[in-house]
């Protein structure tokens, strides 16, 4: 039997699929348009897989957009974590099944919150789409959880340990000289030295920013170790630690519902907005390096995108209620 190799559709083909889907779902497409769509589908596997992606994602997000009480629908979508464990299992299996497990690595799959939501299930503390939380742990430590983030707690007589499963947390550690405080990620371990700091992980990297005190970073697959002091930040993989950089105070602005940008690449800004958008948020690849400046509301993604479109050479396309694509503005 010949193996079928999955093809990841380009951004352009994904947009074509969304536009065709929007045109055909009205039920008013002419016979000529339907023939053009079939010809488009016959071009190859890239088109067919893009169509399947749009079709499956539509089943997940259309009920949120068409609900008479959209706010309540989105809230229910965010808070799958609060269901009883068997129900949460069904939610996550449904999220994964909406696309098929073979789609998890796709860039398009990561342009929705579904992949991140699938990683949140089963963790002790978590925050869903567009949701941030503040929790106080047994020792008095305060943890703020960014949207689409999760962690677990393992406190023992000899140590206090958090395991960051996904996303980003901001920590104000309580003092306990007899029990050191650690945060573990997939790339290493961070030890707090009387500290207020944030830890985020993604794309096989961890970023630690220290706002008060200091932390010690130890890598998972290296003997390298580094002390990061207040006002510094460190980015590391399991094997390598990058040179220390000045900490960006804007990194903790999400706690106040804001995204502060000071020359931040548009790709990074969009990646952060995806945490707060219940749908597909795509970005044309050539726009990723555009520098962004200013303050943008995380709690109102539509407004944030409109603000970006007013100052950057971009335009927003919305072929479907839950689908937003950022494209280059026509000259």
TrEMBL record:
PANTHER family: PERIPLASMIC SIGNAL SENSOR AND SIGMA FACTOR ACTIVATOR FECR-RELATED (PTHR30273), PROTEIN FECR (PTHR30273:SF2). Residues 124-216 form the FecR protein domain. GO terms for molecular function: sigma factor antagonist activity. This is Iron dicitrate transport regulator FecR. It comes from the Bacteria. Residues 15-57 form the FecR N-terminal domain. InterPro entries: FecR, FecR_N, Ferrdict_sens_TM.
């Amino acid at each position: 039997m010949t193996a079928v190799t999955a093809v990841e559709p380009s951004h352009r083909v994904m947009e074509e699929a969304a536009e065709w889907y929007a045109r055909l779902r009205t039920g008013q497409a002419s016979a000529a348009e339907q023939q053009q769509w079939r010809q488009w589908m016959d071009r190859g596997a890239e088109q067919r897989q893009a169509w399947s992606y749009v079709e499956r994602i539509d089943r997940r997000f259309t009920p949120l957009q068409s609900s008479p009480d959209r706010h309540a629908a989105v809230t229910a979508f965010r808070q799958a974590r609060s269901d009883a464990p068997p129900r949460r299992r069904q939610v996550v299996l449904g999220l994964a099944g909406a696309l098929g497990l073979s789609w998890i690595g796709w860039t398009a799959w990561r342009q929705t919150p579904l992949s991140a939501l699938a990683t949140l299930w089963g963790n002790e503390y978590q925050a869903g789409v567009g949701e941030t939380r503040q929790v106080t742990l047994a020792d008095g430590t305060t943890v703020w959880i960014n949207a689409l983030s999760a962690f677990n707690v393992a406190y023992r007589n000899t140590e206090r340990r958090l395991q960051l499963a996904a996303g980003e947390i901001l920590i104000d550690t309580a003092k306990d000289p007899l029990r050191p405080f650690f945060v573990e990620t997939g790339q290493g371990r961070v030890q707090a030295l009387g500290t207020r700091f944030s830890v985020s992980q993604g794309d096989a990297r961890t970023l630690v920013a220290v706002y008060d005190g200091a932390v010690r970073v130890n890598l998972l697959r290296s003997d390298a170790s580094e002390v990061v002091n207040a006002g510094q930040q460190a980015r590391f993989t399991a094997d390598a630690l990058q040179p220390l950089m000045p900490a960006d105070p804007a990194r903790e602005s999400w706690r106040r519902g804001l995204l502060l940008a000071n020359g931040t690449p548009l790709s990074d800004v969009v990646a952060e907005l995806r945490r707060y958008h219940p749908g597909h948020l795509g970005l044309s690849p050539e726009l990723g390096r555009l520098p962004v400046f200013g303050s943008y509301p995380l709690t109102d993604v539509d407004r944030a995108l409109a603000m970006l479109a007013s100052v950057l050479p971009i335009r927003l396309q919305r072929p479907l209620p839950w689908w937003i694509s950022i494209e280059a503005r026509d000259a």
